[in-house]
Write a sequence for this structure.
């Protein structure tokens, strides 16, 4: 007993002496000019691991056994690094001086380790949280269009697709987006979902955009580039932050066919980060956005010249249902057989060839919902097992209504996706596992749904009764012509007669038909696709640099499983989900030579996909030469590849959406599971057959198993910081694509091998087939950017980029949708006036007219010149900012893609609390 008491007393005395030996270091950090607190400042002891970050009140506090005097190092982006010596106990007040960040930005994603941006071996662009705060754009995703070499397609207010180096389309599967180490692609369709599952507006630490090939570090689908998004660490970014943005768009009803009047825009975002102890921290993020979406309203006739009053075969770009087009010659011949007296009217019509007539389409407004909504939430827990060993658990959930374009317009209603992550992260390694789980919700596929709505209220032709829309149209056409009307005027009269009983968009009958058709799975003749696919991913990475010393070596392993589950509506998975696995291994080695003036690097990656027999090996070689302390020349060779997307590799049985539809189904008929029992013919041969009725004119399209595509890319660039005031970056690149995957439209008669099946009133279906083009495709371009620090926080930026395509395969839809050149100008100030309370920023983006291809059409996107701007005022005592801003200030409507919506001006006011 006595022994236990003595031992206990010794333990208490030891603990007491240990506590006595602890020195508590605390203080407050402020801006030397404005005297406001500076959060997220790194405060570390010199030559020791102890330290802290300042919280939202500018305070820091930590303990150490080291004796006084103690040297602290304080650093933060946008401020000069400062060292102070502490000799006595007590809270310290430290002031940091603002400083230019030109040439000091650091990036991680270029080489998977921290390095200065100007020393990067490849082209990389970066957006920081301060850039986002000062941007006139209400969404950080829209900021990306102002970066050098970046293209975007805006399919709707909440669906933006990003790419670099030219190949740009909505739902681009060849551009990778990584959020906190997680690929945010939709597991089934393989294109990134962007804002729907990305970081909330207040939780972005930084964005890094790698231009061009990046598969060697980030795997399949990195042909066009990679966007790496990093969220805020709750140990560093603490406190409650909130931002409320209220705005208005559609301010000019009728302008550029905009059918909406002034409509409200709402965006509310809240973030709470809390460091509970030195070991545990958490963050919670919530964002909700609601607005009236931009409307796709292009009325250009895709079937030739003339509008609805001139062309009976009129099919507007954004009219849905008018893709149903039939040659009425068989009906004219039938009328002639019944009434020979009509010969003077009918014979001239038959003599001129095909007399194609399209059904009447529905415009997007009133048909697809214009209610754009997005809700996303994120929770993250962090626990430091040791000072340099951290466990992370996070969950992100996003849902909403949006629209994207592909072979037609898709209205995503109630779409939602969750991403859940568990990670162990140490100084030299990490182990990360995550899953992405999607639910397509209730999606309206615009074109085929509208075609079936037309068939629902009046069939094009009823073989049992001999009646239908086209027989009625033909009879009315001949009747009007018999009364002396011209063919064009008679066509208008005939359409009005055949359209009797046609329900207006939004009417009870229309909604009944739309809902019933959209609730029948594609596998049963409707237009509903159900996608509840999942992705599971595990990655391990180790940095061997501290072990091998002579070079920097990073290596990793990655395993990914796609569990495709569409119930037969997208994939041949009626009997259960299909598993597709990918196995990867990668390594990145960097070595400095010639007195550390030349940095040489090599990256290798091995990938195997279970759908394809051969693995893929990709490489990246680079050299960076230090010309002087602030000037660098870079050269790189990069190889990238992409396994075909799941929908290109696997697809369900094609669906006959409409027996009279010469297009619009957009089903993919190629890949590992192709369907030879459905003979496919080139559209040219089908058109010839329609004229001659000679089966020999039909030419089959060769269906071959699709193969991965790849690109070899060379880049030469130069970056330099001149006089600490001017930062320049110039580059040129040249790329060669092999097995390039493009699309071609073909026609077939499902289930029939008899070419004469086409004789039945032109009955055939048009499909998109993904296939590898035989010839090599080359792309090349150049770009330059200049940033100038004009002192007193004034900063001016301008960038220019150019992209070209050689050896274009005109038999493919290749989606090289970019102007030959484009440029952006940015001018702003981060703080001026009394205590630097005011700030502003304005941007100008110019794109000349360019040709754009997409699944449901192609045409010219008109030139656009867009000005955005904002001015802000900071309430220093309230830790708040009021921002007044506008995008597309002149309200000159523009488009970023063929068939995409016209984007007008949006004007807003924003209140932000504790945002940093």
């Amino acid at each position: 007993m006595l022994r236990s008491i003595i031992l206990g007393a010794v333990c208490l005395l030891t603990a007491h002496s240990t506590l006595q030996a602890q020195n508590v270091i605390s203080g407050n950090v402020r801006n030397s000019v404005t005297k406001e607190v500076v959060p997220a400042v790194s405060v570390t002891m010199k030559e020791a691991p102890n330290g802290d970050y300042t919280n939202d009140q500018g305070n820091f506090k930590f303990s150490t056994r080291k004796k006084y005097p103690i040297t602290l190092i304080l650093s933060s982006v946008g401020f000069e690094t400062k060292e102070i010596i502490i000799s006595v106990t007590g809270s310290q007040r430290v002031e940091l001086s603002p400083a230019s960040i030109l040439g000091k930005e650091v990036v991680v994603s270029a080489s998977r380790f921290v390095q200065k941006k100007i020393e990067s071996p490849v082209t990389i662009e970066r957006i920081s949280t301060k850039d986002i705060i000062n941007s006139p754009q209400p969404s950080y995703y829209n900021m990306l269009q102002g970066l050098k070499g970046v293209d975007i397609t805006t399919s709707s207010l909440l669906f933006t697709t990003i790419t670099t180096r030219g190949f740009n389309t909505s739902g681009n599967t060849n551009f990778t987006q990584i959020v906190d180490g997680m690929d945010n692609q939709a597991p089934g369709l393989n294109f990134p979902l962007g804002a729907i599952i990305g970081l909330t507006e207040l939780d972005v630490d930084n964005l890094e955009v790698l231009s061009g090939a990046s598969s060697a570090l980030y795997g399949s689908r990195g042909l066009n580039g990679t966007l790496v998004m990093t969220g805020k660490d709750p140990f560093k970014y603490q406190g409650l932050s909130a931002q409320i943005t209220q705005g208005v768009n559609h301010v000019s009803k009728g302008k550029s066919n905009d059918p909406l009047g002034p409509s409200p825009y709402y965006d509310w975002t809240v973030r709470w980060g809390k460091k509970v102890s030195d070991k545990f921290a958490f963050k919670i993020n919530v964002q909700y956005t609601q607005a009236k979406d931009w409307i796709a309203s292009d009325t250009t006739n895709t079937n030739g010249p003339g509008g609805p009053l001139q062309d009976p075969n009129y099919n507007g770009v954004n009219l849905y249902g008018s893709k149903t087009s039939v040659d009425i010659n068989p009906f004219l011949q039938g009328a002639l057989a019944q009434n020979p007296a009509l010969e003077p009217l009918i014979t001239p019509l038959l003599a001129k060839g095909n007399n194609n007539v399209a059904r009447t389409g529905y415009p997007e407004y009133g048909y697809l919902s214009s209610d754009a909504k997005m809700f996303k939430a994120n929770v993250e827990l962090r626990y430091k097992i040791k000072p340099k060993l951290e466990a992370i658990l996070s969950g992100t959930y996003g849902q909403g209504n949006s629209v994207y374009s592909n072979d037609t317009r898709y209205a995503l209603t109630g779409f939602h996706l969750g991403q859940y992550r568990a990670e162990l992260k140490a100084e030299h390694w990490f182990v990360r596992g995550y899953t992405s789980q999607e639910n397509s919700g209730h999606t309206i596929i615009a074109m085929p749904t509208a075609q079936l709505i037309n068939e629902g209220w009046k069939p094009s032709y009823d073989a049992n009764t001999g009646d239908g829309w086209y027989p009625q149209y033909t009879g009315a056409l001949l009747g009007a012509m018999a009364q002396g009307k011209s063919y064009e005027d008679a066509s208008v009269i005939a359409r009005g007669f055949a359209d009797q009983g046609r329900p207006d968009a939004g009417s009870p009958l229309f909604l009944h038909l739309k809902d019933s058709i959209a609730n029948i799975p594609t596998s049963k003749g409707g237009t509903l696709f159900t996608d509840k696919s999942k992705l599971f991913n595990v990655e391990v990475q180790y940095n061997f640099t501290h072990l091998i010393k002579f070079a920097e070596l990073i290596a990793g392993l990655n395993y990914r499983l796609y569990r495709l589950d569409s119930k037969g509506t997208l994939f041949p998975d009626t009997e259960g989900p299909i598993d597709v696995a990918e196995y990867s291994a990668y390594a990145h080695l960097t070595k400095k030579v010639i007195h550390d003036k030349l940095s040489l690097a090599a990256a290798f990656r091995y990938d195997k996909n279970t759908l394809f027999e051969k693995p893929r090996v990709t490489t990246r070689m680079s050299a960076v030469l230090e010309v002087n302390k602030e000037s660098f020349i870079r050269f790189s060779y990069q190889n990238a590849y992409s396994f075909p997307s799941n929908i290109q590799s696997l697809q369900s049985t094609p669906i006959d959406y409409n027996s009279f539809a010469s297009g619009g189904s957009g089903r993919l008929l190629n890949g590992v599971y192709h369907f030879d029992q459905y003979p496919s013919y080139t559209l040219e041969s089908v058109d010839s057959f329609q004229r001659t009725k000679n089966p020999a004119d039909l030419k089959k399209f060769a269906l071959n198993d699709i193969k991965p595509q790849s690109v070899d890319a060379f880049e030469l660039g130069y970056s330099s910081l001149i006089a600490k005031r001017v930062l320049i970056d110039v580059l040129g690149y040249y790329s060669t694509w092999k097995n390039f995957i493009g699309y071609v439209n073909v026609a077939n008669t499902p289930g029939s091998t008899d070419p004469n099946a086409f004789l039945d009133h032109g009955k055939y279906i048009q499909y998109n087939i993904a296939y590898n083009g035989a010839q090599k495709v080359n792309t090349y371009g150049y770009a330059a950017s200049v940033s100038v620090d004009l002192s007193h926080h004034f900063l001016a930026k301008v960038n220019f980029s150019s992209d070209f395509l050689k050896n274009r395969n005109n038999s493919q839809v290749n989606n090289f949708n970019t102007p030959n050149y484009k440029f952006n100008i940015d001018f702003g100030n981060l703080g001026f006036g009394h205590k630097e309370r005011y700030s502003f920023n304005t941007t100008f983006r110019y794109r000349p007219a360019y040709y754009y291809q997409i699944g449901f059409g192609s045409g010219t996107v008109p030139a656009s010149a867009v000005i955005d701007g904002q001015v802000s005022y900071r309430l220093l005592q309230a830790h708040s900012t009021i921002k007044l801003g506008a995008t597309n200030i002149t309200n000159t409507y523009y488009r970023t893609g063929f068939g995409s919506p016209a984007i007008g001006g949006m004007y807003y006011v924003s209140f932000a609390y504790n945002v940093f």
Q: What stands out?
A: The CA atoms of residues 49 and 387 lie 8 Å apart. The chain has a mean pLDDT of 87. The domain at 18-96 is CATH 2.60.40.10 (Immunoglobulin-like). The two ends are 59 Å apart (CA to CA).
